[in-house]
Design a protein that fits this description.
single chain; 284 residues; alpha+beta; Alpha-Beta Plaits; six-stranded mixed beta sheet; 10 helices; globular; Rev_trsase/Diguanyl_cyclase; Diguanylate_Cyclase; Diguanylate cyclase (GGDEF) domain-containing protein
Length: 284
């Protein structure tokens, strides 16, 4: 009954299937301990996917003990333990989808949720924006103030990115100092406005309260798909956003780049800075 659900998978790879909650158990199965054993198993898989091996082992041992025990549980105790396990399972699953440093979503959640939103957008045509964000000159911050301080900067930037996001939108860490904002059910102009507002929040934050002379800005590439005229995968939309991010950086950084027809444009105060290199990125 015990499956190798958390062996053979690299917990740091960010890939693979996301562990799912166990199949609901009947009252009889819960009463004889089978349902609780599966809850322990599922929690063990979730914990192992984050490299929390000691806690995973504890739950796996509990599952083994329950399946090898012939002693029936007291009903009141059983109900209490099942509820506790369900809460612990929900927390473990949520933690398995979060970046441990910034508490934003991780690549595993991004890949899973973005695939669902792309499929949904293909049917509804309500619009989906994917924005790739990179901190400008972040290596200088690390080299000047140290990596632990750089981690604090990343945490603050994520807080600023997540302010005032529309319903259904979310932030995920893409890798290093790169993040993704996913904005479902949105028109192109509104997506650009959301990203430009986020850029301004980062630029105008009082960074000197963290360290004298510190300033932090971000560059953003916004790729929007209306969901009509052909299917565009999440990976393709991320590639488009990456090309637009490159255009924002080539145009001087601290900017939001987006595509209007065949032309790449910059939002807000940076709108006059677009370069010919940036324009060519529209065909990337």
């Amino acid at each position: 009954m015990i499956r190798n659900g958390f062996t053979g998978q690299d917990p740091h790879s960010g890939g693979g299937d996301v562990p799912q909650p166990p199949t609901p158990r009947s009252r009889e199965e819960v009463a004889n301990g089978t349902g609780m054993a599966e809850l322990h198993e599922s929690i063990a898989r979730l914990l192992a996917s984050r490299g929390q091996w000691r806690q995973a082992y504890h739950h796996l041992r509990s599952a083994l003990d329950m399946m090898s025990s012939d002693k029936p549980a007291v009903p009141e105790q059983l109900r209490s333990e099942v509820e506790l396990l369900r809460r612990e399972h929900a927390k473990a699953r949520e933690d398995s989808l979060r970046d441990s440093l910034t508490a934003s979503y991780n690549r595993r959640y991004l890949d899973e949720r973005l695939a669902d939103l792309v499929a949904e957008n293909a049917m509804t045509g309500e619009g989906l924006a994917v924005s790739l964000i990179d901190l400008d000159w972040f290596k200088v911050v690390n080299d000047t103030y140290g990596h632990l301080f750089g981690d604090r900067v990343l945490q603050r930037v994520v807080d600023l990115l997540q302010e005032a996001l529309p319903d259904g939108a979310f932030c995920a860490r893409y890798g290093g100092e790169e993040f993704v904002l996913v904005l479902p059910h949105i028109l192109p102009n509104s997506a650009v406005q959301v990203c430009e507002a986020a850029r301004q929040r980062v630029e105008h934050f009082e960074w000197e309260t963290m360290a004298p002379g510190l300033g932090v800005t971000i560059s953003i590439g916004v790729a929007h798909e209306q969901g009509t005229g052909g299917h565009v995968s999440g990976e393709q939309q991320l590639i488009s956003a990456d090309a637009l991010l490159y255009a924002a950086k080539r145009a001087g950084r601290n900017a939001v780049a987006y595509r209007k027809g065949a032309e790449v444009r910059l939002a807000g105060a940076a709108s006059e800075r677009i370069t010919e290199t940036g324009r060519r990125a529209a065909g990337y």
